[in-house]
Design a protein that fits this description.
The complex is a heterodimer of chains A (132) and B (365).
Chain A lengths: L6 E2 L4 E6 L2 E6 L1 H8 L6 E5 L6 E2 L4 E7 L3 E5 L4 E6 L1 H5 L2 H5 L8 E5 L10 H10 L3
Antiparallel strand pairs in A: 1-2, 2-3, 3-9, 4-6, 5-8, 6-7, 8-9
Chain B lengths: L6 H6 L3 E5 L2 E6 L3 H10 L1 E5 L4 E6 L3 H8 L11 E8 L5 E9 L4 E5 L4 H11 L6 E4 L4 E7 L3 H5 L3 E2 L11 E6 L2 E7 L8 E7 L3 H12 L4 E3 L2 H10 L36 H9 L3 E8 L10 E4 L2 E12 L4 E9 L8 E6 L2 E8 L10
Parallel strand pairs in B: 3-14
Antiparallel strand pairs in B: 1-2, 3-9, 4-7, 4-8, 5-6, 6-7, 9-13, 10-11, 11-12, 12-13, 15-18, 15-20, 16-17, 16-19, 17-18, 19-20
The chains are: A alpha+beta (132), B alpha+beta (365).
Chain lengths: 132, 365
């Protein structure tokens, strides 16, 4: 089971409350889809500057692997407080620890409610239903 | 989706399988970039049974193929192979292919995604001609062994045929893993030395396993279509649907070595149109290396400042060169080696530099 201290989107981002702010990252499934389990397959990540205001669902960055480029989408609306430049510059962190060290951006959310997003059991079910 | 005779073996090996040209094929068994390095330094084994294989026989076989294909079939020496294309009257290709000139046959290897169209095209133009078109795609499996240790791996399994006597782009027949009369060609799509063998489908798994067993000591590994695409791009070889397609002709793609405008070849479909393009090309295919982490991909546009310069048709990370590479179309005369441009990716720009093709060539080194 994936961590249940956060919520998930259908485009494989997670969002986790952290005090007054929230952290956003991508799931192990997203990393595996992009890199096929090989950390060297991730080549580029672009994250937004602090201060950028995001709507729910808005693309805030992109991540690129040998195979493809994927958008990073905001699970909820808010203002970017900080981007994780360590992850941006060392993409292998995403393969090792997508849940903690590999967070991507910290936002100050417009609303604290994450009720519209999936919890861990729902995300597991979603993945199982979409397994190819 | 169609399955090759080796499909279940790929699944057992843990390959990631994808749809390609109507077939369920292994895109990778391990990391794609490692697979590229394996072929460049040791050897790789590929299942190419999805590719179309067509044997043309009958008294008019040479004249018939001559009228459809861009290369000069009558001039191909026996047991030699040439690159060519099938084009429409407008000069744009419906496919590219290899032409094997045998003693009593012309054997064609075409792209999986175009096999049905190619066969229909051939049969339509064969009306009234004394030829037999035999689609052997289903009956034969096709395996490629590519890399510097290929000959050392294959030779112990071959009887009555000295592989050293089969030169590059030549073919012969020999007993492979006990299968008499197996077609063996010194061809490939990687820029490396190597062989392609054509065996009855019921023997495909056994031949694969015998090659794997002998190859173990030589570092041989199975290689998927993902690495194959990077290998062919590094070697500057075209892929239908990218460098060439229904709107990109072979002259502007830099494939004039595969076209013959010799008077003795006579007329062939697309000849007139391509002669006109050759006199006044409007664009050309050139290489591109990015000066940063972004990877060129089909459809990206190239700019210099506000001026649009062209567009990308293929791209990849290149482990051999240590940079990201691509092929792109630019106006004729533009994109000279060393000139710079910017690749536009989702509105952002990545600096890049034009270069000559191919990116990698072992024989020219």
């Amino acid at each position: 089971m994936r961590p249940n201290d956060r919520r998930y989107t259908e485009s494989h981002e997670w969002i986790k409350p952290d005090g007054e702010t929230m952290l956003i990252g991508i799931t192990d499934f997203a990393v595996a889809e992009l890199s096929n389990g090989n950390e060297g397959d991730l080549v580029y990540c672009d994250l937004p500057e602090a201060g950028r205001v995001l709507d729910a669902g808005e693309t805030f960055g992109e991540i690129e692997s040998v195979k493809a480029v994927a958008d990073l989408n905001a699970p909820i609306g808010g203002e970017v407080v900080e981007s994780n430049t360590a992850t941006e510059e060392h993409l292998e962190i995403l393969s090792k620890d997508p849940w903690n060290q590999g967070w991507l951006i910290r936002i100050r959310p417009n609303s604290k409610s994450l009720d519209k997003l999936m919890d861990a059991p729902a995300y597991e079910k979603f993945l199982a239903a979409h397994k190819h | 989706m169609q399955h090759t005779p080796l499909h279940d073996l790929h699944v057992r090996l843990g390959a990631k399988m994808v749809e390609f040209g109507g077939w369920h094929m292994p895109v990778q068994y391990g990391p794609i970039l490692d697979e590229v390095r394996t072929v460049r330094t040791k050897a790789g084994l590929f299942d190419l049974s999805h590719m179309g294989r067509v044997r043309v026989t009958g008294p008019e076989r040479v004249a018939f193929v001559e009228s459809l294909v861009t290369c000069f079939v009558a001039k191909i020496p026996e047991s030699a192979i040439r690159y060519g294309l099938f084009c429409r009257a407008d000069g744009n290709p419906i496919d590219d292919l290899l032409v094997y000139k045998g003693k009593d046959e012309v054997f064609l290897v075409v792209n999986a995604s175009n096999t049905t169209v190619d066969l229909a095209w051939m049969r339509e133009h064969a009306r009234g001609k004394n030829v037999v078109i035999d689609d052997q795609t289903d009956a034969l499996a096709m395996l490629a062994l590519q890399g510097q240790t290929s000959a050392a791996i294959l030779q112990p399994l071959v009887k009555d045929c000295d592989l050293a006597k089969i030169g590059y782009y030549k073919f012969g027949f020999g007993s492979v893993c006990g299968i008499a009369g197996t077609r063996i060609s010194r061809t490939g799509y990687t820029g490396e030395d190597g062989f392609e063998v054509y065996v009855p489908k019921q023997d495909a798994v056994r031949v694969w396993e015998e090659l794997t067993a002998v190859g173990k000591a030589h570092g041989l590994l199975p290689i998927g279509l993902g690495a194959r695409d990077t290998l062919r791009l590094e070697a500057g070889m075209p892929l239908y649907g990218h460098e060439i397609d229904a709107t990109h002709n072979p002259v502007e793609a830099g494939l004039s070595f595969g076209l013959s405008f010799a008077p003795e070849k006579g007329d062939w479909i697309g000849r007139g149109a391509l002669e006109r393009v050759a006199r006044a090309p409007t664009k050309r295919l050139v290489g591109l290396k990015t000066d940063g982490p972004r990877v060129p991909r089909q459809g990206y546009e190239l700019y210099r400042g506000a001026e649009k310069l062209g567009y990308v048709v293929s791209g990849s990370v290149s482990p051999t060169l240590g940079v990201n590479i691509g092929t792109c179309y630019v106006p004729a005369g533009a994109g000279n080696p060393g000139e710079t441009c910017e690749l536009v990716i989702n509105g952002k720009r990545q600096a890049a530099t034009f270069c000559a093709l191919p990116f990698f060539s072992r024989t020219r080194k």
